[in-house]
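Lab manual, section 2.4: Encoding a predicted structure.

Procedure: take the sequence of the chain (576 residues), apply the prediction step described in section 2.3, and record the output as structure tokens. A sample record is shown.
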Amino acid sequence: MKSILFVAMFLAAQTAHAGMFDKMIAAAAKKMAPAGPTTDSLKDVVITGGIERNLPPAELGTINQSLFSGWKTGGDLISFLVSKKGGSGYYKIDGTFSVDGKPVEYLALANYTLITDEKSSPRKIEIVTTTGEKASFTIAPNKNKLKMVSINGEKKNITLDLTKDVTIELDGNIPDGTMLKVAMAVNQVGIKSLIDVCYLRSGSKIVVPAAAFRNLNFTPAGGALFNFKKSFLAVGFESLETAAVLSETLPSFQYTSVYSDGKMVEVKTEPEFNYGLTAKGTDKPADGEISYDFFKPNAARSRPAGQLKKIGLLSFAIGGKTFDEKSVITQDEVMHNGDNRKTKTTTVTFPKQSDEAWDAVLEKMYPELVEAVQTELGAPVLPVEAVSQTAAYKSIEALATPDTNTDANFSRAYKGTKLLATQGGSQALGYGINAPNQKIMNEAGADALMTVKLDFQIEQEGDYGVMVPKLTFELEGKTNGTNTNTKYYTGTVTGKGVPSENIGLKISYGEEKGVMDGGTTKNDKVYHTAGTITPEELEKIVRRSDLLAEFRKGLKEIHDKEKANTDYVTYWDLQN
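Recorded output:
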């Protein structure tokens, strides 16, 4: 299975060749990895990690095997990260971290990791800081066990054609209806890792469709940068369990418990990867060129739109830069012959608008945006309050970008929502199926969260200043398994700025005389001064109708392309 280690998360989109090259990479990674800051207090830490049982054979040669000494085929791997509660980054405990009484060495890339012989009983973890703070907890190995009997009827010397379905026979304690995870070793950019293939329902015989191999949970590099040499196919159980912590300062947390088994395989025919779907186009309405660019990731990272039943609004905001100044040296020969150095400085200014003016733009755009989404995707958008009033949403409001309105920039959010990043925030708030966004969807009864931002960038366009509008859109889905975030679609719509005599534009020509002469002269030319922007002119500058028309066109095109690709439904039906 893909390791629960930080290294696996850190290198999740990478894979590699085995042997000496792996060892060189691992050694370099250990040497170059920055050491984390130390802490002697447990009040500002978050613990994540878990236990993985029945480790793959040492001959496989993954990056994890190179990073950690003492690899044990069939053994257990226990690994925990100590991260900052109030932000990103990792801590080294100023004190001791032990498993069943054995001190665990700190590694910059993986924090606290220990490989042991196979053991079915719970493990006790203890943390003691130099200031005397103590915490202890137990973790339980996954109670389910299985054995891979055969692949396509073969028990050894297995060769695979990954353009065809693969049948796996299993034996062991496999509860009916349990979700199993299939993973495979892939070499990419000099690193070998176990990559998620898919999740599917349990059975003594499971069939992994070719579509799953086309949609591995990673971003393949081009051409010869990836391959399946000396590969390994694994099937296993993965669950999240709660660790009860005995400490006043460290709360209980969830950990990952994994058990898997697999076989070495030789891949004769590689899959033709689904790199994701794109929809791009450009149109030229009356107010100038406008273009769209939409993307849907591969099936491992993107659910089919047919799963959309209710969409919640995570964030809808408007913002941008209203002042810009650029200087360019047009002649610089001072050091050669004493000629003058000339500079051109362009200043563009958009008149400050009231909060009410920007709010009015959002008020007009939102219902039209919702109508486009509902029509093209066939799923209703919930009332704004269904999301913004959830406890999970309120838990991340402090991480939002605050509303602001100055002479240089502005930012406004719609109807009590906040300008939020889709996966922002501290790891202390949870990750994967415990991340805030996942909790928001669960509390609001939504299948997806929509984030929309209308940005403006002020620029010079000939003898005028313009505000270039850009609409960004993201529709996030629930996780695939315990950790993989999914997105239904992402997209941008960008329009050409509409020239306005009320946007200030000034160009200054500065001249620094030769070194022997000294002195500076200046020549300013004012093309336009910042005037009053009426509501009618603001609407023309925003280009709301053009943006939404192009948005609808791009969303329909990417959705139609998805419907024509059967991989998404095939992949996700495995979990039913």
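Check your result against the sample. The CA atoms of residues 396 and 425 lie 7 Å apart.
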